[in-house]
């Protein structure tokens, strides 16, 4: 993996042609059309939610609350005594045809998420089996960046790695959801205003996740690609500003919700999405791999000093982390626990949005606060 700041920064100058607006618009249209078709066919589901905002530490945290709250978190079903252990089936090999959106080059496929709490939740999946514990490489990043760029207000990419990260599948995949995190990529309300539930501003350009309010002041003036410790947070977190130029109106002409679009007819009608796949940005992938490598090295070095252990890796279970990335920055957070009390956390929680599905969970978050919860599943800073 490219691990030097110099190599990461050097590739940025050649990444301006990462994706063309036309290719991005075509890919976004494929996402929205395919999403609509999957919902109609019940190939994918949507859990009804609403958003509430908690302000803490200068961040407007988005609570995504299930409309049908349970009294208590649902425990995993107990296996009958003596019953054989259920064999794991890889949902990505083979994947469901109804969830396919596009092939992103030869190494990745773009799928829709099957169980959704926000619309247009996408998965960038390796075409052949690779382990989720492996670090993201340039090809992973190139495919992911193409999907991030196609979303009208930009996408939030996230990667759950390791046993304590909230990862749900062992097959390597990066997830991408549209910004802002209230599930409305256009960011426009019915009255024409441009303020989302996360409090972000939706003037022309990419929307920001809630955690940006804590990240931006620390990254101000920092060289792009240079890892910075976010000591203002109560948990260890490492971030870097990105110097990749955004695509010009990346999804101009794309349908915000796919309404009224011609239905996608399997692969035969995916020529426009294939055009976007052909524009997968190799230079952007190399740049982002370099930044990611720097953050991961900084994180493992710090964690190794804290725990007195060297050679920490996800493969042996000694390292878990969450990564989130937007057009503006990349954030990496080491993990020590998958949940705090009844509240489970994955990467999106560190972007500023926590999903709660029971009365117990919402009371727990409201009583304790998002920052102490994230500190409990992460690592406290030490000198």
Automatic annotation (TrEMBL):
<protein>
    <submittedName>
        <fullName>ATP adenylyltransferase</fullName>
    </submittedName>
</protein>
<dbReference type="Pfam" id="PF19327">
    <property type="entry name" value="Ap4A_phos_N"/>
</dbReference>
<dbReference type="Pfam" id="PF09830">
    <property type="entry name" value="ATP_transf"/>
</dbReference>
<dbReference type="InterPro" id="IPR036265">
    <property type="entry name" value="HIT-like_sf"/>
</dbReference>
<feature type="region of interest" description="Disordered">
    <location>
        <begin position="177"/>
        <end position="205"/>
    </location>
</feature>
<keyword id="KW-0808">Transferase</keyword>
<dbReference type="InterPro" id="IPR045759">
    <property type="entry name" value="Ap4A_phos1/2_N"/>
</dbReference>
<dbReference type="GO" id="GO:0003877">
    <property type="term" value="F:ATP:ADP adenylyltransferase activity"/>
</dbReference>
<dbReference type="GO" id="GO:0009117">
    <property type="term" value="P:nucleotide metabolic process"/>
</dbReference>
<feature type="compositionally biased region" description="Low complexity">
    <location>
        <begin position="186"/>
        <end position="205"/>
    </location>
</feature>
<dbReference type="GO" id="GO:0005524">
    <property type="term" value="F:ATP binding"/>
</dbReference>
<feature type="domain" description="Ap4A phosphorylase 1/2 N-terminal">
    <location>
        <begin position="22"/>
        <end position="183"/>
    </location>
</feature>
<keyword id="KW-0548">Nucleotidyltransferase</keyword>
<dbReference type="InterPro" id="IPR043171">
    <property type="entry name" value="Ap4A_phos1/2-like"/>
</dbReference>
<dbReference type="InterPro" id="IPR019200">
    <property type="entry name" value="ATP_adenylylTrfase_C"/>
</dbReference>
<dbReference type="InterPro" id="IPR009163">
    <property type="entry name" value="Ap4A_phos1/2"/>
</dbReference>
<feature type="domain" description="ATP adenylyltransferase C-terminal">
    <location>
        <begin position="282"/>
        <end position="380"/>
    </location>
</feature>
